[in-house]
Design brief:
By secondary structure, the chain is mostly helical. The chain is 75% helix and 0% strand. Helix 11 (217-253) runs parallel beside helix 12 (264-273). The longest helix has 37 residues, at 104-140. The model is unreliable at 1-21 (pLDDT under 50).
Length: 318
């Protein structure tokens, strides 16, 4: 009798505890993603260069986001410039003034918003095009893959900057044009990398099982191929952003940017037009140039660290 009574509550407690500890597929998926993110961050922190790059990017992002509060949009005004043209650095203007008498420190801070935004959006567009072409070419193969890869090869052998200049010249001068010109000319490298990874993924046995169970093309590409190539896409994005920022600065320096907005490349172009190089006005050239170099280096360091974490065989130095 005692045994039966003791067994009864134990059975009831065990059956009541099972639903509490059981987890559904979505909960398990979220848990795995959290564990993967924690493992990624733990490994990423071991790369000192990557941590330095991430800290620098965080600082520049904070500067860009708080620019409306710290310097305000009036810093772009030419008619209400607070100083004299080409003033040297001093107590009132730590980085001097430009050819219109505007505070260069405020212009560099405000220009971070445009340069970072253009670089990020252009890189996202480039990686999206490259990933789409790479996945579809690796999945469908045949004549479609042949045509796509020949187009990719043509873009690879053509100078990227020349194509971007040509697009920026024939289209209206705006930030959208710069983003489009950079995005549609820098995707071939991503396309070839993603296609190679797609071919490796689709050669695995579980892809054959998914096809045998009736999985269609969209199911295979979105549920099996895309999650496996996303780490490569992420690493490629961080590397392309630095190139996109440099390309934006180059196009703006050549006078193909939007003249109504302030960017780091636009400041360099203004300095060239004002004769700052021949006049020895170094403060007009150095701050935007250093900002471009530091941000490009920070993104490169982050990209190399991400590559090393996702693929330890690369042996990237820490």
């Amino acid at each position: 009798m005692t045994t039966t009574e003791s067994d009864g509550p134990m059975t009831t407690e065990s059956t009541a505890a099972e639903p509490a500890t059981a987890k559904g597929p979505r909960a398990l998926a979220r848990q795995r993603r959290r564990h993967s993110a924690a493992r990624f961050w733990k490994q990423y922190r071991t790369h000192r260069a990557g941590v330095f790059g991430l800290a620098a990017l965080g600082l520049f992002a904070l500067i860009a986001l708080t620019a409306p509060l710290t310097v305000g949009s009036d810093v772009q005004s030419v008619t209400n410039a607070p100083g004299d043209p080409m003033e040297s650095p001093g107590a009132e203007f730590p980085l001097g003034t430009d050819q219109f008498g505007r505070d260069l420190l405020g212009l560099v801070v405000w220009g971070a918003r445009v340069s970072l935004l253009v670089g990020l959006l252009a890189a996202v567009l480039s990686v999206a095009i490259g990933a789409l072409i790479g996945i579809t070419a690796g999945h469908f193969r045949g004549w479609y893959a042949t045509v796509m890869m020949r187009i990719t090869d043509w873009f690879l052998v053509m100078p990227t900057l020349v194509l971007a200049i040509a697009l920026a010249t024939v289209m209206t001068r705006s930030l959208g044009t710069i983003i489009l010109a950079i995005g549609v000319t820098t995707w071939p490298t991503t396309a070839r990398l993603v296609r190679a990874q797609t071919l490796a993924v689709e050669s695995r046995p579980y892809i054959e099982r998914a096809k045998a169970l009736g999985g269609g093309h969209w199911h295979i590409m979105s549920r099996h191929v895309l999650p496996n190539v996303m780490p490569l896409v992420l690493a490629q994005t961080t590397l392309i952003i630095s190139s996109a920022i440099l390309a934006e600065a180059t196009l703006a320096f050549l006078g193909l940017g939007d003249p109504t907005v302030v960017s780091w490349g636009g400041l360099l172009q203004d300095a060239r037009e004002a004769g700052a190089v021949s006049a020895g006005k170094w403060w007009y050239l150095v701050p935007p140039g250093v900002a471009i170099a530091v941000v490009a280096l920070a993104f490169t360091l982050c990209g190399r660290a991400v590559e090393s974490v996702l693929n330890p065989k690369l042996g990237v130095a820490r």
